[in-house]
Amino acid sequence: MADPTGPSSEGAGSGTAEVDACSLEIERKYDVIPAVICSMCCLFGIIYCFFGYRCFKAVMFLSGLMFGSVIIFLLCHKEHVLDTQLSVEASAGIGLGIGLLCGLVTMLVRSVGLFMTGLLLGLLLALAALLVTQQFYTPTTVWVPLGSLLGAGMLFAVLTLQWQKLFTMLSTAVFGAAIMTVCADYFVEMLVLATHVYECLRLTPGPPLCWYSWVILGIWPALSLIGVLVQWKLTDDSFSHTEVVISRRQKRVQLMRIREKDAKKRQQAELPAKSAGQTDGHRHFP
């Protein structure tokens, strides 16, 4: 008979399983296409985080491109379109095409681009808050995280339209840091952290994160703070996206004024010649 005072085999097995989950080496099998895409996204994340406000037009275009492409890709890949299940390549092509249109709209229409930038900031901050509160409290319905994401997104979108420079710096720094964090998560632990965040949004319990996952997650606020400081020092008061638009308008106004002055000079130069021709004509014909 087994000794009841000794440790049970089930408890020992569960304890070793929990320890082994974080102590075992991660099997990394990188595919070429995802690795290349992740590397490009990491480059975009660096540009976003440290030079987001300087590259205002490019950031507006990339925000619309990525937001539109991801949303349309998920809709086409997860849902049935015309009673047919689209392949990954077809969904990616449709998402990229519509994403390009969204990028052009956000780049050309400044208010739409700023609204999208603030929306991304609100979604990311709400996601971080949900991830932290998930450790202490689990909502009972999916509408709680969805409502939090939508409410925070709309709030920061309106704030970005009001205070454009400040919240554009914050949004680009936070979003660029989030992209670099996801890329680090892919190369280190094959998107374990991203999967955990997705499960938190779906309210499906998953295994707890290991210590190195929390270290990777800590990269996000650290890079966000560094990105805000770098952008603030780079831009200072010498650069503004509104001044670029104003300077272009001023150049057009100055060019129109120069053309008007040239036209007046030509008219003044032609008047004496016309008057001289008229006097000569009167002399020949008395």
Note down, in words, how this protein is organized.
The chain is mainly α and 286 residues long. Helices cover 80% and strands 0% of the residues. It has helices spanning 9-23, 32-51, 56-78, 88-108, 110-133, 143-162, 164-189, 192-202, 211-235, 241-284. α5 (110-133) crosses α7 (164-189) and α6 (143-162) packs across α7. Mean pLDDT is 79; it is low at 1-18.
Question: Which descriptors apply to this entry?
Answer:
286 residues; single chain; mainly alpha; disordered N terminus; 10 helices
Low confidence ranges: 1-18
β content, as a range? under 5%
| Rg over alpha carbons | 30 Å
> What's the order of the H and E elements?
HHHHHHHHHH
Q: Got a strand count?
A: 0
Indicate the topology:
Elements: H1 9-23, H2 32-51, H3 56-78, H4 88-108, H5 110-133, H6 143-162, H7 164-189, H8 192-202, H9 211-235, H10 241-284
Helix pairs in contact: 2-7, 3-4, 3-5, 4-5, 5-6, 5-7, 6-7, 7-9
Give the gist of this structure:
The protein is mainly alpha-helical. The protein has helices spanning 9-23, 32-51, 56-78, 88-108, 110-133, 143-162, 164-189, 192-202, 211-235, 241-284. The radius of gyration is 30 Å and the shape is elongated.
